[in-house]
Structure formats: structure tokens, C-alpha cells
Amino acid sequence: MLRTCTYLFALLLIGATWVTASPVVAQTTAPEAGEEAAPPASVPEDPLGRTTPRGAFSGYIHAMAEESYDEAAEYLDLSGLPRRIARQGGAEIARRLRIALDQGGDVQPSVALSDQPEGKLNDGLAPRMERIGSVTLQGEVVPLYLERTEETDEPLWRVSSETLKYLPETLDENLHTTVDQLLPSVLIQRKWQGVPIGHWLAMVLLAILAYVISRLVVAAVIGGARRLLRRRFPNYPTGLVQAFGQPIRVYLAVMLFVAAAQRAGISIIVRQYFSQVTVLVAWFAILLLAWRLIDVIASALLTRTTRRANMGALSAILFFRRSIKVLLVALGVISVLDMIGFDVTTGLAALGIGGIAIALGAQKTVENLVGGLSLIFDQPVRVGDFCKIGDIVGTVEQIGMRSTRIRTLDRTMVVIPNGDLSSRVIENYAHRDRFWFHPALGLRYETTPDQIRYLLVEIRSMLYAHPRVDPDPARVRFTGFGAVSVNLEVFAYVLAKDYDDFLEIQEDLYLRIADIVRESGTGFAFPSQTVYLASDSGRSDSKSREAEEKVNQWREAGDMPLPKFEPERVDKLKGSIGYPPPGSSSAKR
């Protein structure tokens, strides 16, 4: 993916170089005779493109490349110049300015110049002034200004007289720059675009040399950084340092290339034609660094997520990594198109409309993606949780970006779209701190009130005494008379770590309740009608008398724990029952 995107971006840079390096596009051409005039705009169009700072200086460079000094003079503000300079004539001043820029000029890349008629209003200069670089004249660095002048109500940008007045009366035209001293005469005499061919070849050699030097420097720095980090931080992400390698190599090569071209005295025409490419390559280095950092951060997060077996977060990380990379590539393409002069506003508006259309067409897919993200971040369920979703009961096996898979108790696999899942009622059993124990006991109608009182006290005492039952709240109540039974309701919470543990404790509680019911002398009612054809044992009179006597003892002593137990009695009963019960194999452990 990275290699593909790199190739595409490189092709885009080559295309940008071809478009921007052509002198034709550096200047707005005048309409030919017979062509219909364009509708009037708020700012009149200038045939020489001087309505913006970018157009003005690009036009001057184009005129210099054509060695058309009379045309180049149209880009200079010759008003207010000292007589010693003005008498030289506009064409000669334009030529001398070029020589000065070749020998010691530093001009901003053309893409950095304002393409607005009003220029940059936040640079701290007067609204009519624009600083675009500097030029060294007689050992003094002079700011290179463009100034907006108005002629016949048409604001035009020209090289300011505030800069031109510093031009000396004579320039040493025989002063050879470093590149001229190194090149053979044949490469200096033959010209292309008004510049010796040797200057163009020198730029290519400087680019190669700058990259070789930056590669060696960065390799040494990265090697030292790796050894230092390995000693200080043994577990540091190994790809972190590597991520900075290639982007820094490219960016450093651009900086070395620009500085070397200026110091070597490469013609300002060549440097300006290459300036846009250098800015694009620098942008590419920054975007490449962001791309690498995204990979490093995502890899670290993936490692942690895999270690925790969080498959849902794993899908989210992969999704966000792809999405951020797509946005990064889109940002890079838009920036490149904007730098080479395309109006991206209309394109962005079209993309916005297209995005809305795509979103409407893929509404369900987007809904599932959003639902998947909400499941991952809110985490109502996790992989391995036993839960109930609607009427589906099972264990969550996978949470993806589009759907969630649940293994039911029948061992079938149910796939639920995340958009549908996020709108359902989810009951998660996996993270319960306590389990609800609430059986309803139906007793025979022959059960006497004192037997009911006996059961209420003894069952409640058993719940309070059980070490795995939470005594607050734990209650047993006589809830009424049913069609075939008198009903008691038990309410308590069991302290269990999972459902299997709860079933084990619940089994013990049921057996203890059955023992208490048997000891009370009554029994559980059957959901049927009993027809007495002969005498049977029925209820136990002796047991009934014992229960009644015990209740009478409570009543006479004023110690009947109804309707509720006193806190002191509850504290006395807590943990007094042995669990697991005597005789159980678990009690031996």
C-alpha cells in the first residue's frame, strides 16, 4: 500500500513539475484578436498577469527566460528612482536586477507567493507592499519588495522602487559564480530558456548530491539513536526510529538542495522553476512521515490488543488506520493541486455532494460501521460474554466492524448486523456480581398457620446463616392462597463467581428448604385435586404438634421473629450453618 501510494504521489509530482516548469503557464497570455472578451471581473485582468504578487514575479521570471528585457521592465516600478538609476532605462534595470538575483538573490518559492489581488494582509507591512525575498547588493542584504500601484484604476503589482533604488550604477558582470567557475565554457555559452545549460545540469547533480549527503547523515543519526534507545529503553517500538528515516532523508535533501543552489550561484530562473517542485517534495516528506507514524502507532496498539485478545478493538484499529491513511492521501493530493494552481474549492464542493450521495446509497453499511464502533467503545458486550440479545441467548464469539457473531446454546452461529444489534436490548450475564435466588414455594392446604410461621422463621434463619447468601436483603414471605396451595416467596442474592457456581449453591439451598419443609410436618402441594377414598397418613400430627409447640414457646417468650428478625439475631445466625453440608465431598477440601 505504501509503495503504491508513493508511486502515485511521485507521478503526481512529475506531472506538477511538467506543468509548473513550463514558462508558458508562468504568465497569463493576452487574448488574441477576434476572441470574445471575458466578462468583467471585480479586478480587471492584466495581460501580463500583474494582478497578484505571484503572477507579477512569475511574469518577470518568464520575461527574463525569454531575454525580453523591455517586457521585463513592465514588471518594475520605475517611478521615484534616483536619476543615476532611472537614466539607465527600464530594460537595463531589469537586466541588472536579474544579475543581482543570480549572484545573491533569495526568493520565496512561487507557491508561497500570494495569488490574491490584495496580497498578504497579515505580514506586518503596508497593504500595498509584499516582501518576497532578499537580494545582496554591494555586500548589503536588501529586502525584495513588490508594490501595488494603480494605473487607470487598475491595481498592478511590480518590483518596488524601494528595492530598485539600491541597485548600483555598475555591476561586475564578469563576476563568475561558483557554478560558472566549475562548468566548461561550452555549457555556459549554450543556453536554454535564457540560462546556460550547465545551470540546469548542475541543479540535477546538486539534487543527487544533496540526497546522498542526507542519506549518510540520517543513517549515522538513526544508528546512534537506535543504540541510545536500546540502552535506555529496551522495549521501545523498534519501528519508531525507522519511521523517521526516509521522510527526514527527503526533507533534509530538499533543504540542502535549496541552500546549495543559492550558494553556488545557480540562475534565479532555474531556481524559481525548481522551487515549486522542492516545496512539493518537502510536503511529500511530511506526509510520508505522518504515514509512517500512523503505521508505528497502529502496530503498537495492535500488539497490545492482540495480547489482550480484544478482537473488537483490533477491527477498530485496522479501520481507523485505513481511514486516516485515505484522508492523508486526499490531503496530499488536494495540497499538490492547490500548489500547482488548480482551484480546489469546486472540487471539494463536488466531493462533498458525492460523499452525501454515497452515504445515502450505503446507508445500511454506514449504519453497521457506526454501530460496530459504538459496540467497541461502549463495550456493552465483549468477546466471551454470555448474554441475551432480543430472544437470542448465547456467547459472543466475534465483534467485527459490520456484524457480531454469537454462539447459541444449541451450538448454532447467529450473525447480527451491528446497526441492528446497537438498537436492541442487550442483557449481559457475564459481569453479574450476585445471582438472584427467588423460588416460589407452594404448600399443601392442610398446612396450619403455625407451620407457616415455623417455615418463615426456619427458612429465613437458614438464609441468614448460609455463608454464600447475602443477608441484606434476604427474606421469606407468605404471599397468599393459590388455587391449589398456600404460597411462600423466597428472595435472596447468592454470592457466586459465575453461573456454574450459582447452580451449585442453588442446589444446596433447595435441599435445605426441602428438609425444613419436611421437618415442619407439611409438604409441597401438587397442581392437582386430591380425592380422599381412604384414610392415609396425611400430615404428621406429632410433627405438627412439635412445630406448634415451638411457635407457642416463641410467642410466650415474646421471641417470635416475625414480621422481621432483629439485627442482633441476624448477626448471631450469620455463618452458623456449615457449607458445604456435612457428608459432602467438597467439605473435605
From TrEMBL:
Residues 365-430 form the Mechanosensitive ion channel MscS domain. Residues 1-21 form the signal peptide. It comes from the Bacteria. Residues 538-558, 565-574 have a biased composition (Basic and acidic residues). One of its GO terms (molecular function) is mechanosensitive monoatomic ion channel activity. Residues 30-54, 535-589 are annotated as: Disordered. GO terms for cellular component: plasma membrane. Residues 324-363 form the Mechanosensitive ion channel transmembrane helices 2/3 domain. Keywords: Cell membrane, Membrane, Signal, Transmembrane, Transmembrane helix. It is found in: Cell membrane. Residues 442-521 form the Mechanosensitive ion channel MscS C-terminal domain. Residues 30-46 have a biased composition (Low complexity). It is a multi-pass membrane protein. The chain crosses the membrane at residues 200-229, 250-274, 280-303, 324-342. The keyword Transmembrane helix applies. Pfam families: MS_channel_1st, MS_channel_2nd, MS_channel_3rd. InterPro entries: LSM_dom_sf, MS_channel_1st, MS_channel_C, MscS_beta-dom_sf, MscS_channel_2nd, MscS_channel_C_sf, MscS_channel_CS, MscS_channel_TM-2. Belongs to the MscS (TC 1.A.23) family. This is MscS family membrane protein. It comes from Halopseudomonas xinjiangensis.
